[in-house]
Amino acid sequence: ENISKYQLQYASKYPHFPHLYKRETHTIQASKDSSKDDSPNLFYVFFLIIIIILQCISVADLKTPQGLAGYSCKKLELVTVDDFVFSGLHAGNTSNLIKAAVTPAFTAQFPGVNGLGISIARLDLAVGGVVPMHTHPDSSEIIVVIQGIIDAGFVSSANKVYFKTLKTGDIMVFPQGLLHFQINAGTTPALAYVSFSSPSPGVQILDFALFGNDLPSNIIEETTFLDDAQVKKLKGVLGGTG
Ligand SMILES: *[C@@H]1O[C@H](CO)[C@@H](O)[C@H](O)[C@H]1NC(C)=O
User: Fold this and answer.
1) Are 201 and 136 in contact (CB under 8 A)?
2) If residue 143 lies in a helix (H) or strand (E), which one and from where to where?
3) Which residue range or ranges hold the Cupin type-1 domain (predicted)?
4) What is the spatial distance between Cα 195 and Cα 200, in angstroms, rounded to a whole number?
5) Mean pLDDT over the full length of the chain
6) CA–CA separation, 184 vs 126, rounded Å?
7) Residue 10 — very low, low, confident or very high, per pLDDT cuts 50/70/90?
8) How would you class 129 by CB atoms within 10 Å of its CB: exposed for 0-12, middle for 13-18, buried for 19 or more?
C-alpha cells in the first residue's frame, strides 16, 4: 500500500510540466518500474527503510562530521528557538567578476532547515551583475524580486527558452535541474531572495564547469565547437588551466 503510493509520487513528480523534461528520463524510469509490474518491489522497501533510518528530522549538528546521509542531528534537549532563526542574510560583496553575490541560508549556515526540504538565499546584483547560466541538479528555485529589475530565464531540456524581465514584486520559478540565469537589467542595484526545494541545493555554473578547471582545452574545443582562442581567453578570465 505505502510502496505503491511512493511509486506513484515518484512517477508523477512533474505531472504539470512533462514537456520541460526530455522523454528519455521518463522512459528510463518507466521501464524500471514496468519491469516490476504490481509485485511488491523489494528494492523500494529496502530503500525506504534506509531513508527512514538515515534521514535526519531535526536540527543539523554542524560540529559532528558529515556522514553519507548528511549531517547528524543535534540532541533534542539542546535544540532552542534560535536553531530555527537565522539573522545572516546580509548584503553580499558584489566586487567580483560577475558583480553578484549569493548569501545562503542552507543547512551549513542555518542548521534548522536540515531535513525539511527547504532553504533560502539572498541575491545581490550590482549594476551589470549576472548569475551566469547554472543548474541546481536536486532543487527547484523560486525568486522574488525585492528591488530593481532582473532579466531571468531558464532553458528546458528540449531547448525551449522561458525568459522574462522581472519587476519589483515579481516572482518566477525555475524547475529542478534546468539551466537558468539572472541578470540585473536596471541602472540601480537589484535585490532578490531565492528559495529552494532542498536544504542544501547544489549548484553547477556552466561557465566555471567549462572554463574554470583543468579540463584540457582540446577536449573543450571538441565538445563545444569553440575555437582555441576563445577557449584560452575564457580560461584566462575564469581561472582555468590546460
Ligand atoms: C569586497 O571584495 C573585494 C574584492 O575581493 C575586496 O577588495 C573588498 O575589500 C570587499 N569589501 C568588503 C566590504 O568586504
Assistant:
1) yes
2) strand 141-147
3) 87-232
4) 11
5) 85
6) 7
7) very low
8) buried
Q: What is the DSSP secondary structure assignment for residue 43, as one 8-state letter?
A: H
Q: How far apart are CA 184 and CA 179, in angstroms?
A: 18
| 189: Cβ contacts below 8 Å, ≥ 6 apart | 94, 124, 125, 126, 127, 129, 147, 148
Ligand 1 centroid – CA 105 distance (Å):
21
From 95, 96, 98, 99, the mutation candidate for ligand 1 (largest count of ligand atoms within 8 A of CB) is 95
Residue type (1 letter), 122 = R
d(C-alpha 209, C-alpha 75), whole Å: 39
Question: What confidence tens digit (pLDDT) does each residue in 132-180 have?
Answer: 999 999 999 999 999 999 999 999 999 999 999 999 999 999 999 999 9
In the DSSP assignment, the letter for residue 107 is T
- Residues contacting residue 23 through CB under 8 Å, at least 6 positions apart: none
Identify which of 93, 94, 103 to mutate to test ligand 1's pocket (most ligand atoms within 8 A of the CB): 93
183 CA to middle of ligand 1, Å? 21
Q: How far is the CA of 95 from the centre of ligand 1 (A)?
A: 6
* Residue that is written with C-alpha cell 532553504 in the block: 119
